[in-house]
Amino acid sequence: MNERIERAMQMQAAMVIMDRAATQNKSINEVYRDFRKSRTFAMLFDYGTSLWTTGPAYISEEYDLELKESKTPKISRETEYGMIKPAQ
């Protein structure tokens, strides 16, 4: 991996973690632990997504969307259209 790009990825992650810790009144370790497990963190360190080329605010927003999606109950098509499957 290109050393410069790796450092840029690490700096972006550090800025996101420090900002979220400060704004959410959480420890850096707690924020790091949760962020490290996220899809957003994986995308940040993936050359293909180029997420590392954006700013920490954008990355943090992506993480917020991920967290929101994970807390939103998933509704199946059957339930959405009023067709509930019988229990099997």
Question: Could you explain how this protein is built, in words?
Answer:
The chain has 88 residues and is mainly alpha-helical. It is 65% helix and 0% strand. It contains five helices and no strands. It has helices at residues 3-24, 28-36, 39-44, 56-71, 77-80. The longest helix has 22 residues, at 3-24. The protein is globular. The mean pLDDT is 87.
Describe what is shown at a glance:
With 88 residues, the protein is mainly α. Helices cover 65% and strands 0% of the residues.
SSE diagram, text form:
Layout: H1 3-24, H2 28-36, H3 39-44, H4 56-71, H5 77-80
Q: Could you state the order of secondary-structure elements as H and E?
A: HHHHH
Main beta-sheet strand count, sense and barrel state: none
Anisotropy-based shape: globular
Question: In angstroms, what is the radius of gyration?
Answer: 17 Å
Distance between the first and last residues' Cα? 50 Å
Helix content: 55-70%
Low-pLDDT runs of 5+ residues are none
Mean pLDDT: 87
Main structural class = mainly alpha
